[in-house]
Design brief:
51% of the residues lie in helices and 9% in strands. It is of the alpha+beta class. Helix 9 crosses helix 10 and helix 17 crosses helix 20. The N terminus is likely disordered.
Length: 682
C-alpha cells in the first residue's frame, strides 16, 4: 500500500510539472503576442497615416518658447515633436498644448505633457480630436532655437520590440502560475537546501531592487556637497559623529547669538525676523537647548554606522547607503521572523504560502516607505524596524523548545531595547514579551519567587533596563532631562505650546486608517490625497502634514482580515500560545501610536510606518492562527489575492506623487521610462 501511494504521489507530481510547463508555454506565447500587438498597438494603428510636415514658427515669452504649428488642414491622429536641446543638461520639456478641431474652431487647452530626449515614445502625442484641425500652439518651458525643433503630423510610429518588457511580463505571470500550480506546496522546512536557495534568491533580488530605488532617489553628489555647505539637517548624523570624536555631545557650530536673548527661540517667524535683521540664519530641524545645537534623532545609527565611517575616513555618510544596508538586513530577518511565527501559531505551512506571507510582511510593513524616502528622517526609523523584528525573532526562537534558550532571551531583549535609541515609539514592542511568553507565565516560569522564574524574568527585564538606561543618561547629558529625547526642542516648528487637540482625532484617525486612495485617470493613477499639503477636512486648525496617499487599510488590503477576527475560530495550539492576546495587543498599540503620532507629529506616510508594521504583523498572525476547516478553498484564494494586491500596491505606490521625494521628482527618467514601457497607449 505504501509503495502504491508513493507511485500515485509521484505520478501526481509529474502531472503537476507537465501542466505547469504547458501553462508556461501558453503564457510565453501570450506575452509574445502582447509585445507584438498590444504594446505596439499605436504602430499598427498609424500604419495608414499620411505624414504631414506643417509650418512651424517660434516666439518667446518670459523664458518659454511659443511654437505655432500651421499650414495643414486634416484630421490629426498624432503629433511628433522632436527637440534638439541647446544644452546637454536639458533632458525634458514640459509642453502645454492648445488645439482646434471641427467643434472647437477657436481652440481649447489640452492636458500638460512632457517630452524626454532619450525616450522616443514620449515624443509622440496621440490626439483625440473631432474632424479636421488647422492650428496648434505649444508653450514649452525652455528656450528653443530656430531649427532645433522638428514637427510631423500623423507620423507612422516605430515598432518597438522591447525584450525587458517581454521578460518582466513573462516573469510576473510565471510567478503567479508557479503559486497557482502549488509546485512549491511542499511543507515549510527552512533546513532544506532547495528552500534556503529559494529564500536567498528572493532576498537578493528584492534587496537589489530596493538598493536601486534607494540610490536613485537620493540627492546627487552636487546636492550632497551643497547641503553640507548650508549645514542642512540631512548631514546631522555625520556632524554628531564628528562632535563625539571631538569629545562633546553638542554640534560643532553655534546657533545665532540672538537666540539666547529670545523668550521663546522655537518660534520660527521670530527667528526669521531677527535673522533678516542680523544676517545670522538659524538652522531648522535641529534640537536647540541652552545655546547649543543637538541631534534629536536616535543615536543608535550614529554609533553603528556613522561614527566608524567618519572616524576612519573623515567624510560624511550618504544616508541612502545606510538605508540600503538596513533594507538588506531587514529582508532575511523578516523571513526568519515569519518562519518562527509559522512554527508557533501554525506548526506547518506550504512553502509557497510562507513565501507569500513573508513578502507581505516585508513589503507592506512600511519599510518600502523608507526605501522611497531615503533621508535622515527615515534612517532611525529603518534602524528601529530592523531591531524590532530581530528582537521578536530572538524571543520566539528562545521559546521554540520546551527549555528556554536564555541566550536568545537576552539578545532579544537587548535588540528590542535598542529601538528606544532609534525611534522611541518602537519601544512599545517590549510589551510583546507578554503574549510571546504567556503560556510560560501561566506555567510559573516568569514572575514567581522561584530561582528559575526569577532568573528568566531578570533575563528579559535587566537587558532592557540597562540598555535603555544608556539612552536616558544621554538625554540627561544633552537636555538635562532623561525623559527628553529632543523632539519637543526641535526648531523646525514651535512645539513648545503644541497641545492635545481632541478635534484632530476624528479626521486624523480616518486619514491614518480608512482614507481611500485618491485615484483618477492620469498616470500613475494614484495621487496625493492632500494637494497643497492641506487635508480636505473641517478641522480649522494647524496640523503638520506631508504628502499622503491614504489610510492603512486602503494601502494594504491584506489587513482587512483584522475585521474578520470576531468570526474566526482559532487553532487550540495558537490560542494557548497567546495568538489572540498578541493580535489584540498589536491592534491596540497601533491605534494608540497612531493617536500619538497624530497629536505630537502630524500626518505623514513615514509616521504611518510606526503602526503599519503592527497591523501587518497582527494580520499575519491572524491568518496563521485560524482553524484549517474554517479556511475554505475560496477563503484561501481570497487571502492570496489580497496578499498579492497588497504587495503590488506597495511597489506601484512608488510611482505616486503622494510619496515624499516622489519618483517623478527624484528619478524623472526612470519614472517616464517605466511609464512608456508599460503604459504606451498615449
Amino acid at each position: 500500500m505504501q509503495s502504491l501511494r508513493g507511485i500515485s504521489d509521484s505520478s501526481c507530481s509529474r502531472d503537476k510539472i507537465r501542466r505547469f510547463f504547458l501553462h508556461i508555454a501558453i503564457w510565453f506565447v501570450i506575452c509574445i503576442l502582447a509585445e507584438c500587438f498590444l504594446f505596439n498597438f499605436r504602430f499598427w494603428e498609424s500604419l495608414g497615416n499620411d505624414p504631414v510636415s506643417p509650418d512651424v514658427s517660434l516666439s518667446y515669452d518670459d523664458g518659454s518658447t511659443i511654437v505655432d504649428i500651421t499650414g495643414f488642414d486634416c484630421h490629426v491622429n498624432n503629433l511628433f515633436i522632436d527637440i534638439t536641446p541647446a544644452e546637454s543638461y536639458i533632458q525634458n520639456y514640459n509642453i502645454r498644448m492648445y488645439a482646434n478641431d471641427a467643434t472647437n474652431l477657436e481652440g481649447f487647452m489640452l492636458p500638460d505633457t512632457n517630452i524626454y530626449n532619450e525616450i522616443t515614445e514620449s515624443k509622440y502625442l496621440r490626439l483625440q480630436l473631432n474632424g479636421n484641425s488647422t492650428h496648434f500652439k505649444c508653450k514649452i518651458d525652455n528656450l528653443i532655437e530656430e531649427g532645433n525643433i522638428r514637427v510631423t503630423i500623423n507620423a507612422v510610429r516605430p515598432f518597438r520590440f522591447i525584450l525587458i518588457r517581454l521578460t518582466g511580463l513573462f516573469m510576473l505571470g510565471a510567478v503567479i502560475l508557479l503559486l497557482k500550480s502549488r509546485l512549491l506546496g511542499m511543507p515549510l522546512n527552512t533546513g532544506k537546501p532547495v528552500q534556503i536557495m529559494c529564500i536567498a534568491i528572493v532576498s537578493v533580488f528584492l534587496a537589489f531592487i530596493w538598493s536601486q530605488i534607494v540610490t536613485g532617489s537620493y540627492v546627487d553628489e552636487g546636492g550632497f556637497v551643497y547641503l553640507d555647505g548650508i549645514h542642512n539637517v540631512e548631514h546631522i548624523y555625520s556632524y554628531t559623529a564628528r562632535s563625539f570624536l571631538n569629545g562633546h555631545l553638542h554640534l560643532d557650530f553655534d546657533p545665532p547669538s540672538y537666540m539666547k536673548e529670545m523668550v521663546n527661540p522655537y518660534i520660527e517667524s521670530e527667528r526669521n525676523r531677527l535673522g533678516g535683521l542680523t544676517g545670522e540664519i538659524a538652522l531648522t530641524d535641529y534640537a536647540y537647548f541652552d545655546g547649543r545645537y543637538y541631534c534629536y534623532y536616535g543615536i543608535v545609527p550614529i554609533i553603528l554606522f556613522y561614527l566608524p565611517y567618519v572616524a576612519l575616513t573623515g567624510k560624511l555618510v550618504h544616508n541612502c547607503y545606510v538605508i540600503a544596508l538596513l533594507g538588506s538586513l531587514f529582508i532575511p530577518i523578516s523571513f526568519a521572523l515569519t518562519s518562527q511565527l509559522v512554527k508557533r501559531f501554525r506548526g506547518t505551512i506550504a512553502f509557497d504560502s510562507y513565501l507569500l506571507l513573508s513578502l507581505v510582511f516585508i513589503c507592506c510593513s512600511g519599510f518600502m516607505t523608507f526605501i522611497k524616502m531615503s533621508s535622515i528622517h527615515t534612517v532611525p526609523m529603518a534602524t528601529g524596524f530592523v531591531f524590532m523584528v530581530l528582537g521578536l525573532y530572538l524571543w520566539l526562537k528562545a521559546d521554540e523548545k520546551p527549555k528556554l534558550n536564555r541566550l536568545c532571551l537576552v539578545l532579544g531583549s537587548i535588540s528590542v531595547a535598542l529601538t528606544l535609541g532609534c525611534r522611541p515609539p518602537h519601544i512599545v514592542m517590549v510589551l510583546a514579551a507578554f503574549p510571546i511568553f504567556w503560556h510560560r507565565i501561566k506555567a510559573g516560569e516568569f514572575f514567581r519567587m522561584e530561582k528559575k522564574s526569577i532568573i528568566n524574568t531578570l533575563m528579559v527585564i535587566m537587558p532592557i533596563l540597562l540598555t535603555d538606561a544608556i539612552f536616558l543618561c544621554y538625554n540627561g547629558l544633552c537636555f538635562a532631562n532623561p525623559l527628553e529625547f529632543g523632539s519637543s526642542l526641535n526648531l523646525s516648528r514651535d512645539l513648545m505650546d503644541d497641545g492635545f487637540m481632541i478635534e484632530r482625532i476624528p479626521f486624523g484617525m480616518y486619514s491614518y486608517l480608512f482614507m481611500p486612495l485618491h485615484v483618477n485617470a492620469a498616470f500613475p493613477y494614484v495621487h496625493v490625497s492632500n494637494p497643497g499639503d492641506v487635508f480636505p477636512a473641517d478641522y480649522m486648525g494647524f496640523i503638520y502634514n506631508e504628502r499622503f496617499f491614504g489610510g492603512a487599510f486602503a494601502v494594504v488590503p491584506f489587513c482587512l482580515v483584522l475585521f474578520l477576527l470576531p468570526f474566526m475560530k482559532f487553532k487550540k495550539d495558537a490560542k494557548e500560545k497567546g495568538a489572540k492576546i498578541f493580535i489584540f495587543l498589536l491592534v491596540i498599540l497601533s491605534v494608540l501610536i497612531a493617536l500619538l503620532d497624530l497629536e505630537k507629529g502630524g500626518i505623514s506616510n513615514r509616521y504611518m510606518t510606526d503602526f503599519m508594521i503592527l497591523l501587518v504583523l497582527a494580520s499575519v498572525i491572524a491568518v496563521l492562527s485560524v482553524k484549517e476547516p474554517v479556511m475554505s478553498v475560496k477563503a484561501k484564494t481570497l487571502f492570496r489575492i489580497a496578499a498579492v494586491i497588497s504587495i503590488l500596491m506597495m511597489f506601484f505606490l512608488l510611482l505616486s506623487d503622494a510619496n515624499g521625494n516622489s519618483m517623478q521628482e527624484s528619478m524623472p527618467y526612470e519614472y517616464n521610462w517605466f511609464k512608456y514601457l508599460i503604459f504606451v497607449l498615449r
